[in-house]
Design a protein that fits this description.
With 202 residues, this protein is mostly helical. It is 76% helix and 5% strand. The protein has two domains: 126 residues; 63 residues, no CATH class.
């Protein structure tokens, strides 16, 4: 079943490259408020699909084979990743990563507390791994941990946002997807998994 994805890889990345290129050109030609909502949604869906395809391609080309780069070339994997990220960058920029990570941390700590802590009978003290702690100390500890995670995530989010801003810049989107499209065309025409690399290598 998975081999079918590899067999159709040239066609898949050709179509994905065309969609990504159309999306990039649309971003370049129009202001943000006039971007095509359909192309934006199509680019998002395409980025998710080729992300899954890339995982299958890596498995088939590098895990389930003794000859790397023969079935799936490394350049194809890299171009799928770059093109997919360029199409996914805009939705990711709109996601509040710091808040999400903090909420996940809070939920995880609360879950661990429920699993491993016991309330001492008749008191508000908590038995945590044999250590008796007042409830306010445990709550304060959770607040401090979540606060540290939030601050760290905030600065990480700032850095990630800058990277996403660069990747989602329309000329970058156009270049990455044009290369993916060219890779797909050459893979089909030459019958070579290497595509562009086959022409560049001596």
């Amino acid at each position: 079943m998975l081999e079918i994805v590899v067999d159709l890889l040239g066609i898949i990345i050709l179509v994905a490259g065309l969609i990504g290129l159309a999306y990039g050109v649309n971003k370049f030609m129009k202001s943000r408020r006039h971007e095509s909502s359909f192309l934006k949604f199509l680019a998002l869906a395409t980025s998710i699909v080729i992300g899954i395809v890339n995982i299958i391609a890596i498995y088939e080309g590098y895990v389930d084979t003794v000859e790397p780069d023969v079935v799936v070339h490394w350049l194809t994997v890299v171009l799928i990743f770059l093109a997919g990220m360029s199409m996914l960058a805009d939705p990711l920029k709109e996601t509040p990563l710091a808040a999400m990570i903090s909420m996940i941390t809070l939920g995880a700590l609360a879950g661990l507390l429920l699993l491993f802590a016991d309330l001492e009978g008749g008191t508000s003290d908590i038995d945590l791994f044999g250590i008796i702690l007042p409830l306010w100390v445990v709550i304060l500890g959770i607040v401090i941990i979540v606060g540290i995670v939030f601050v760290a995530s905030f600065f990480t989010e700032f850095t990630v946002d800058k990277i996403l801003q660069l990747i989602s810049w329309s000329p970058v989107v156009i270049v990455f997807n044009a290369l993916l499209l060219l890779q797909g065309i050459l893979m089909l025409l030459l019958g070579e998994p290497a595509g562009i690399w086959h022409l560049l290598s001596p």
